[in-house]
Design brief:
Mean pLDDT: 78
Bound molecules: zinc ion
Radius of gyration: 12 Å
Order of helices and strands: EEE
Structural class: mainly beta
Low-confidence stretches: none
Strand content: 15-25%
CATH topology of the domain at 1-44: Rubrerythrin, domain 2
Strand order of the largest sheet: 2-1-3
Largest sheet: 3 strands, antiparallel
Helix content: under 10%
Number of helices: 0
CATH architecture of the domain at 1-44: Single Sheet
Length: 68
């Protein structure tokens, strides 16, 4: 099951959502229904950094939409 974690940019709520394929549209916050949510790094990743670290482990650019 492809479960992704999202964080609401409005209230900071973190929730999980089942995503099939690349259908990331229509994802809204479970708490405030805001569509302004960002996908977090999958918990299945072995390189999960705690907190908002400055280093980007997902790419070499140091900043990207996936792991920034
Ligand atoms: Zn919210």
């Amino acid at each position: 099951m492809p479960i992704y974690e999202f964080q609401c940019e409005e209230c900071g709520e973190i929730f999980e959502e089942l995503i099939f394929g690349n259908d990331f549209e229509g994802i809204v916050c479970k708490k405030c229904k805001s569509p302004k949510v960002k996908k977090l790094i999958s918990r299945t990743s072995p390189k999960t950094s705690s907190g908002s670290g400055s280093s980007c482990s997902g790419c070499k650019g140091g900043s990207c939409s996936t792991c920034h």
